[in-house]
Write a structure and sequence with these properties.
The protein has about 230 residues and is mostly helical. The protein is built from six helices and two strands. It is about 60% helix and about 5% strand. Strands 1-2 form a two-stranded antiparallel sheet. Helix 1 packs parallel to helix 3. The longest helix is centred in the last third of the chain and has 29 residues. The C terminus is likely disordered.
């Protein structure tokens, strides 16, 4: 890419794309002519958010500040799009709220797991950031073809029920994965005392009773060993 294209500029393109897509979703309440604008906004959002990180790594310009900035913009862009879906004809506010709760739960667990294992999971149940954007971009087109109009719907629709059931399954799956991850860390413990998880970078006191190594980012120990 040209030197004038920087990771920060790509991130800004992604944010601008999310704003354009969100405005187009609201515009679809009155005219389907906004659909091409929505798809264009989603493409810009994907282009900016998917390429800023790889470009920064290829130019060796990665730093914590940029990582936090990029992750925050990614998170806020998705939240904006999910909320505005609830103001569009393609999803009810109830369904958008359910999807938002699920998205925040999965995001929170992703960040916790990143801190615990020093490796961020790229996808859950085969759905990563890029797949999620494709799903959001495709749904208005599919809903338009199927004649979905949640604005005209009176009360909970079959779509609301289906989304609620899928969300419940997703949350149960996430809970099972969290328990499995916790068990894999503490599976070797023989003590019945509660297990504590912590990042080695957060505790460096000289009085610590358990040795902490950079080679083992996460350690489990019981209160009996303190």
């Amino acid at each position: 890419m040209p030197a004038s294209v920087t990771p920060l500029r790509l991130t800004k393109v992604g944010v601008i794309g999310a704003v354009i897509a969100a405005a187009a979703l609201i515009g679809c309440r009155w005219s389907p002519a906004w659909l091409p604008v929505f798809v264009t906004g989603m493409f810009l959002n994907w282009l900016g958010m998917a390429l800023d990180g790889p470009l920064a790594r290829s130019r060796n310009k990665t730093n914590r500040k940029f990582d936090v900035y990029g992750q925050a913009n990614d998170l806020l862009s998705h939240i904006l799009l999910i909320v505005t879906f609830g103001a569009s004809p393609f999803l009810s506010f109830q369904s958008a709220f359910v999807i938002l709760v699920c998205y925040l739960l999965f995001s929170a667990y992703s960040y916790v797991r990143t801190i615990a294992h020093h490796a961020r999971p790229m996808a859950y149940i085969g759905l990563g950031p890029s797949e999620f954007r494709i799903l959001m971009a495709a749904w208005p087109l599919v809903a338009r073809v199927m004649g979905v109009d949640e604005i005209a719907s009176d009360g909970p629709s079959r779509l609301d029920t289906a989304i609620l059931i899928l969300a419940a399954i997703a949350v149960i799956g996430l809970a099972a994965k969290a328990l499995a991850d916790a068990g894999s860390c503490c599976g070797g413990m023989t003590s019945s005392a509660p297990c504590r998880l912590f990042d080695t970078g957060a505790h460096q006191g000289k009085s610590a009773a358990v040795p902490r190594s950079r080679k083992a980012p996460i350690m489990c120990y019981s209160r009996a060993e303190e």
